[in-house]
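Recall that a protein's primary structure is simply its ordered list of amino acids. Everything else, from secondary elements to tertiary packing, is in principle encoded there. The following example makes that idea concrete.
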Amino acid sequence: MGRTRPLAGGRPTAPRGAVPRPAAAITTRLTAGERRGRIRPGARPARPTGPLGVPAMPPDARRLSALKNIGTTAETWLNDAGIASPDDLARVGPVGAWRRVKVAHPTSVTVLLLYALRGALLDLHWNDVPPDLKAQLRETAGLPEGRRRDLSP
């Protein structure tokens, strides 16, 4: 193996006369359906259309991040848990969705996501969810009463 020349910072470089490596291939991010093998990579499902051939709903309305309280991280977590649209979230319910996400990301998910999911379905900020509804959600999810920091089972 040839000797390498150090850079000013002390890191070695490629030996003299070495052939540079080709640039890395451009990669694209796979959707949840592509990762699970439900959709062929690169093939995008057709958007549903209404009676006049126009989309039934705007593309952003099909995204979970279009809902209140749901950002890109929560949307990724929900997609990892098999919940890909607001309709899926409504069908599974906030507690079922929270449990699925909690299994996939046990150390990152707190009770605040449970409140955020319920608030998203009600179009409320998570902090505006009534306290009695928060208590009912905690009870349904099997979480103990107490401070927020203690509510991560």
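The mean pLDDT is 75. The domain at 60-150 is CATH 1.10.150.20 (DNA polymerase; domain 1).
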